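Sharing a chain and its predicted structure for anyone who wants a worked example. Both blocks are below, sequence first, tokens second.
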Amino acid sequence: MKHQFLARASMIGNLMANDRTGKNIGETAMKEIQKIVLFDKYGIETDISSKYIDKGIQNEKIGVQMAIDVLDWFDVDVNKPKIRYTNEWITGEPDVDSNMICGDIKCSFDGTTFPWFATECPNKIYFYQMQSYMWLMERDHSFLVYALTNHPDQMLLDETNRATWRALSNPKYESLSQSEIEQIMEQQMRSQFTFDHIPLEKRIKPFRIDRDENVINAMKTRIEIIREIYSNFYKSI
């Protein structure tokens, strides 16, 4: 019997990955299934924490508020608790869920990862994630919004400390004391990771994504196949 596996909206992009022929499940998807099986059966979990993820989590509400201000999302409440939606195939919690808006916020780590010049959704995984939310919420369109937010104070301090330790072994700074190097590194990190000098409207990049029934049907089909693979992996270990 197939396991009634539910895909998370955040993982569906990896699960949709194909092999080089474009017809069969790819290695990325198979590894994702294996990780899920290991966790479900034995509680073994891959640590996926990183400074990039940490910033996104810490700054999510800041990013939502920036989107509210710039995009005139007048019916969005930044403090509204997230709602988890689930259907027969998938489950997920969109960052933005109001009567008018289905959306998700991605806080770029720094100015080099913000999609300044993109004209359409720059990330296929996020595209599938938004299709999932529209499917779950029965919406016709959604918004993927990138926000260029300042680093939280602790993250800024961590970056400064890392830069200072690197600089201590750099001959360029050998004539300076550690406190002088710290001051220089703090200024550099603030320049690199704070963006108040950029107009707010330039620090929000929205991408409208329309519902695609062909994509949703493909996700249904893939999840049904994954349920068989999941069951076989589960029994094998």
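Comments welcome. Residues 7-150+195-236 form a domain with the Lambda Exonuclease; Chain A fold (CATH 3.90.320.10).
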